Amino acid sequence: MRKPVRIMIPLLAAGMLAVGCTGGGSTPAPQGSGTAGAPSAGPANPNAMPRNETLYTSGTQWGPPANFNPIREWDSATGTKGLVYETLFHFDPNAGKLTPWVAESGGWTDDTTYELKIRKGVKWSDGTPFTAKDVAFTFGLGKMETIPYHNVWEWLKNVEATDDQTVKFTFSTANHQEWDFNLYNRAIVPEHLWGKLSEEDVLNGVNENPVGTGAYKFSSHDQDRAVLTKRDDWWGKTVLNMDPKPKYIVDIVNTSNEVAMGLLLQKGMDLSNNFLPGVANLVKGNFGLTTFYKEPPYMLSANTAWLVPNTTKKPMDDAVFRKALATSVDTRKIVEGVYGNLVKAAGPTGLLPQWDQFVDQNVVSQSGFSYDKDKAKKLLADAGYKDRDGDGLVENKDGSKLSLTLMVPSGWTDWMEAARSIAASAKEAGISVTPDFPDYNALVEKRGKGDFDLVINNERQLSNTPFTYYQYVFQLPVQKVQNTVNFGRYENKRAWELVRKLDQVKTDDIAGMKAAVAEIEKIHLEELPVIPLWYNGLWAQSSTSTWKNWPSSEQGAPKYAPVMWRNWLEMGGFETLTQLQPAAS
Amino acid sequence: MRRYFGRWLAVLLAWGFGVILGIFPVAGGYSFSTRPNWSLDFMLDLLHHWALPFASLFLVALGGWAIGMRNMIIYELESDYANYLSALGAPQRLIRRYAFRNAVLPQITGLALQLGVLVAGALVTEIVFSYPGLGSLILKAVQNQDFFLLQGTFLFIVLGVLIANFIIDIVYVVVDPRTRTGMAGASA
């Protein structure tokens, strides 16, 4: 009898441990249900979302939802700005016009004063009325140096809520173009909650319980998703007569584009804003997928991809060499070979198709460039870049070896292929270019410090004005670290002067804008501080299994940009949601 | 090698059972339409999402373990006690039963050692199935240079391996009579 008892002791221990172990292993579950349960104000069964009321999206978040802070326009959870927090205006890229949103109207009362009327009856999701004070407060936050729109205060003198519905902005310089950009890009935050926060919390706070004016609110989130639920009391329903159809929006965190593709084909996802190579075949192959266009390029254009030469290094400091390099690149090969016609080759100016009216054809025909291998060779030879050692590649003017490195982040497969293609066509013209694929963070650091020869970049999206485009190209002064603009460290005082002049042209003065842009275009094309390559697509693949009436080029279909990316919900993303229809009906 | 094969198999499984047949989900740890809660539906949902990733790991590993077991059993069947038993005229089934009990011991030790690798080594599977596990968490922590998260996950892995090893040690008492005799004071 003694022996069995002794055996029982370790067994008992093991049993208890196993119980303890399962208890420990499942702690995340109650935690998860805790976050889910807290704001559960919705459906009968708060844990399930019916498929026909839910929109599944992906392509925005590449890591767990990091924060719900609308000030952090670059890494907040999908929909933080646009669905939960709202902006004063929305921008319609097709009409090229701002549409009033929580603002009712706005206008310049004199040369340096802008008066904004905001709508009555808008409420924050905690019930507090939305007033002009909130707007004044939000722009006042920009006085903190770390806020992304801090530079507004270089030319904004004062902002004041004169009554509950009116905000008066007084400027020292009226930068019309940039101001319009700010009007539809800045999310308004509630003063009664944010007024108490420290500067650190405003910029780096997670903002776990966001209170916005928007049509949705966050209902739960997890490592691999963020879930939004529609607010029934959203002001826009009656005022704007708009109603976003999906009751729930689940934005899925991407681990890879293949997974997004799998989910799309399984009809578990409705809108994928991922780059899916070969999607052309799926669109044609009757898989229930649609894109904006039925034929190439399939997608709308979202931004321009440039080849950025470091203009502080030899021989990229020579405009003739840059031109030769530009002429040597066969973009057609990239568009067809790398992208399978999912993108469009860029025009010489690189201005997006939506900005076509600003392209001055005279300037382009005079100073533009296009792929021409022989011309590139001639340009090089005439400027004194000659092949002295007979290896088929040119040397520097002083005879030293010329060898450039083209950096592209590792893992960005389409760009890696494009870099290889650029290197190959440059080599044919006699310029030695070697592709290099460092880690993304390493690349960003080197690019910021100007420690590179060539990079590919596309960090300027479509906006209300070509000003933002040229600001990217020409902004001065060049800082020690260039984080967002002018990576090539190109210095041209006259060009920057012209860009600033463009900034001050009134946004309804199209002729004035055209004239200003034409002058800048001329400098851009003659100097080529950045070489436009192709227009990156507004990747959007949608499944018609649950929701239909997706935006498309066809007659009768909505023309909005079907995209959930950050800063795009104000440019048609939200409007897309209002146009959807359940596929079953 | 095994990992590459595992990834390949995982992709095939996701494609075949997920996209073509549509009977298993291709991504996520639980359905995107539910929130975690203590219900049978949710547990079934968890299992449903777990099945394919598990199968892709299990099918690949199974062969290796089977070969290991086969070698052990051959070794045991050729040992002295097996020969002695058969000389005494014991039935083959009895001999095999004894051999099995001895052959499985190194396998259990191997399992204990394998657990640590399993947690961290399931990374590829987790990526293919977009499964929110420790492996993909480690990868993200590395990519974002989040050292605290990295330390935390390693702490969990270390704890997990230690606890698993402890349990296996205890299981040994049951499966290996010799340890029991040792505990009772006799020498094996």
Please give a handful of descriptors for the protein shown.
heterodimer; A: 585 residues; alpha+beta; seven-stranded mixed sheet; six-stranded mixed sheet; 33% helix; 17% strand; globular; B: 188 residues; mainly alpha; elongated
Helical coverage of chain A, percent range: 25-40%
Q: Beta fraction of the residues of chain A?
A: 15-25%
For the terminal residues of chain A, how far apart are their CA atoms? 74 Å
Structure classification of chain A = alpha+beta
The biggest sheet of chain B, with number of strands, parallel, antiparallel or mixed sense and barrel status, is: none
Q: Regions of chain A with pLDDT < 50 over 5+ consecutive residues?
A: 1-5, 13-44
Q: How many distinct helices of chain A?
A: 19
- Secondary structure tally: strands of chain A: 21
> How confident overall, as mean pLDDT of chain B?
85
Radius of gyration of chain A: 27 Å
Largest sheet of chain A: 7 strands, mixed
Structure report:
The complex is a heterodimer of chains A (585) and B (188). By secondary structure, chain A is of the alpha+beta class. Chain A has 19 helices and 21 strands. In chain A, a hairpin with a 4-residue loop joins strand 2 (89-92) and strand 3. In chain A, helix 10 (319-328) packs antiparallel against helix 13 (373-383). Residues 1-5 and 13-44 of chain A have low confidence and may be disordered. With 188 residues, chain B is mainly alpha-helical. The mean pLDDT of chain B is 85.
Quick description:
By secondary structure, chain A is an alpha+beta fold.
Summarize the SSE layout with pairings.
The complex is a heterodimer of chains A (585) and B (188).
Chain A: H1 2-25, H2 28-37, E1 54-58, E2 89-92, E3 97-100, E4 103-110, E5 113-118, H3 132-141, E6 156-163, E7 166-171, H4 176-185, H5 191-194, H6 199-204, E8 216-222, E9 225-230, H7 236-239, E10 248-252, H8 257-265, E11 271-272, H9 279-284, E12 289-290, E13 301-309, H10 319-328, H11 331-338, E14 344-345, H12 361-367, H13 373-383, E15 404-407, H14 413-429, E16 433-436, H15 440-449, E17 454-457, H16 466-474, H17 493-503, H18 510-527, E18 531-537, E19 541-543, E20 547-548, H19 573-579, E21 581-582
Helix pairs in contact in A: 10-13, 11-14, 16-17, 17-18
Chain B: H1 2-20, H2 40-77, H3 80-87, H4 92-121, H5 123-128, H6 134-143, H7 147-175, H8 177-183
Helix pairs in contact in B: 1-2, 2-4, 4-7, 6-7, 7-8
